């Protein structure tokens, strides 16, 4: 039996770790060691070499364990996560009927609490970084920034810059951009929160604002986020209003480029894929969102082959990185690969890469995180791979995509600091927060002008058993 790890062994500014496996950018490595010091990876390489180099540092053996980069959630809505079960069975564009009304009803205290709970869920699921697309909640965005920092997750935080469309005035646009500039300045050097600007969907901003926000992001070296080509309805509205599809609209105003991250991109034509490739625009591929509330699956396998940068995103559905990996592969197989006789569908490593270093690059953090490499911030997981499901592995990389589970995560580190041990924070009371959010969530949902179109599972069962599932009897016509 291996000795049980203790929290105290993993705390400290310097750690020399001896895992059984290390996931490097190039793949799995055995007999390697990793030195973590002052929040960074200071040395990575063959175990004997590092032991010789750092003989004064006691090594911590981690038999049966994998040390891997923390995974990246390339698209999240932190202040929506507590209401995720409202999405079940709903048709597309749920944001119009549920998310916008829900977020608009939240006060700063509940924004903080719900965002912190979402950050905890992400950490428990193996994500050490989340890219938040911006909240429509009232109040200061600092409530979200404080929540993620206090929870211990790294966050690329979007500030929404919607100005309402082409009817907005120059004064309105100037005021919005002034807030954006202050936000960028306030978080420019923050250790854990990295600023981003966002426009919810192109149709809710003027052409001038789309151009200005994308340009500001390029100049500041941060990312511009927007939801694009996700639903048929939004594509058709864009064609009616602008004579162009949303992605074409962005291109026409100069809002595509290396600074831009489009969410979803599920409805893309060949010419639009070429546009993404030509402009080096990044995409968040959100396979669970496609299953829950989308119109299609983004052709991520083709994007990978074309060199289009993309991250995997949860879209606040469920914050479980290993299940997201599985969904990323499965969605591609069902939507594209099976019809072409492609039995590989990315060979596992494609999805793991885009959940780690390639995902970090897509959200503008490739120079900082995403891999176990000297000089990168020490955002990583210690994963138990000595389990009944994985003890006979012959392809550990692919096993992580298809077999691994979040309960195998022993420890989660962000910025070199132990944040979770066996799924729970080491320095704050998660259960207290859970109870606070649970007690307030139903009241927040009840007071928001939400329109749900699908009954709960129990109500649906009762209707189906009663035999009037499709056409409920109308009492007024009896």
Largest sheet: 9 strands, mixed
Using the CA coordinates, give the radius of gyration: 23 Å
Q: Helices and strands: which structural class?
A: alpha/beta
Q: What is the typical, i.e. mean, pLDDT?
A: 93
Global morphology:
globular
Which parts are unreliable, with pLDDT below 50 for 5 consecutive residues or more? Answer: none
Structure explained in plain terms:
With 478 residues, the chain is an alpha/beta fold. The protein is built from 17 helices and 17 strands. Strands 1, 2, 3, 4, 5, 14, 15, 16 and 17 form a 9-stranded mixed β-sheet that branches. The chain has an 8-stranded parallel β-sheet with strand order 6-7-8-9-10-11-12-13, with helices on both faces. Helix 3 (108-124) runs parallel beside helix 4 (142-151). It is globular and about 75 Å long. The termini are far apart. The relative contact order is 0.15. The model has no long low-confidence stretch (mean pLDDT 93).
Write the SSE topology:
Layout: E1 14-24, E2 27-30, E3 32-37, E4 40-46, H1 47-53, E5 59-69, E6 71-76, H2 94-104, H3 108-124, E7 127-132, H4 142-151, E8 154-160, H5 170-186, E9 193-199, H6 207-220, E10 224-228, H7 232-242, H8 246-252, E11 260-264, H9 270-279, E12 282-285, H10 287-293, H11 300-306, E13 310-312, H12 321-340, H13 349-355, H14 357-362, E14 380-384, H15 396-402, E15 409-414, E16 417-421, E17 424-425, H16 430-447, H17 457-465
Parallel strand pairs: 1-5, 6-7, 7-8, 8-9, 9-10, 10-11, 11-12, 12-13
Antiparallel strand pairs: 1-2, 1-3, 3-4, 5-14, 14-15, 15-16, 16-17
Helix pairs in contact: 3-4, 3-16, 5-6
């Amino acid at each position: 039996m291996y000795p049980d790890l203790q929290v105290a062994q993993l705390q400290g500014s310097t750690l020399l770790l001896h895992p059984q496996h290390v996931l490097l950018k190039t793949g799995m490595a055995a007999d390697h060691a990793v030195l973590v010091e002052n929040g960074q990876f200071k040395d990575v390489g063959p175990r004997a070499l590092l032991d010789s180099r750092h003989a004064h540092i006691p090594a911590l053996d981690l038999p049966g364990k994998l040390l891997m980069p923390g995974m990246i959630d390339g698209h999240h809505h932190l202040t929506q996560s507590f209401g995720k079960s409202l999405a079940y069975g709903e048709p597309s564009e749920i944001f119009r009927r549920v998310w916008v009304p829900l977020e608009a009803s939240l006060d700063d205290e509940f924004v903080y609490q719900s965002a912190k709970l979402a950050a905890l869920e992400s950490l428990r699921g193996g994500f050490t970084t989340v890219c938040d697309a911006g909240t429509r909640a009232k109040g200061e965005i600092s409530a979200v920034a404080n929540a993620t920092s206090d929870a211990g997750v790294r966050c690329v935080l979007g500030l929404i810059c919607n100005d309402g469309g082409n009817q907005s005035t120059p004064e309105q646009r100037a005021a919005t951009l002034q807030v954006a500039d202050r936000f960028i300045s306030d978080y420019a050097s923050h250790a854990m929160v990295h600023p981003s600007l966002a426009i919810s969907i192109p149709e809710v901003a003027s052409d001038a604002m789309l151009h200005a926000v994308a340009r500001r992001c390029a100049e500041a070296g941060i990312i511009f986020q927007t939801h694009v080509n996700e639903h048929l309805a939004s594509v058709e509205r864009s064609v009616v209003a602008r004579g162009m599809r949303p992605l074409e609209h962005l291109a026409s105003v100069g809002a595509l480029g290396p600074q831009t991250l489009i969410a979803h991109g599920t409805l893309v034509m060949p010419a639009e894929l070429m546009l993404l490739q030509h402009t080096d625009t990044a995409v968040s591929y959100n396979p669970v969102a496609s299953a829950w509330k989308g119109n299609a699956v983004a052709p991520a396998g083709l994007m990978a082959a074309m060199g289009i940068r993309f991250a995997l995103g949860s879209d606040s559905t469920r914050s479980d990185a290993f299940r997201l990996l599985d969904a990323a592969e499965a969605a591609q197989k069902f939507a594209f690969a099976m019809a072409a006789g492609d039995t590989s569908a990315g060979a596992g490593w494609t999805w793991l890469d885009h959940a780690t270093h390639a995902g970090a690059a897509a959200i503008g953090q490739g120079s900082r995180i995403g891999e176990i490499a000297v000089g990168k911030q020490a955002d990583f997981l210690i994963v138990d791979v000595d389990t009944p499901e994985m003890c006979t592995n012959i392809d550990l990389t692919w096993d992580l995509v298809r077999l691994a589970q979040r309960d195998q995560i022993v420890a989660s580190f962000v910025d070199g600091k132990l944040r979770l041990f066996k799924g729970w924070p080491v320095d704050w009371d998660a259960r207290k927060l859970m109870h606070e959010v649970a007690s307030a969530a139903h009241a927040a949902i009840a007071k928001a002008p939400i329109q749900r179109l699908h009954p709960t599972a129990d109500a649906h069962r009762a209707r189906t058993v009663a035999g009037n599932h499709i056409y409920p009897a109308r009492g007024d016509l009896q």
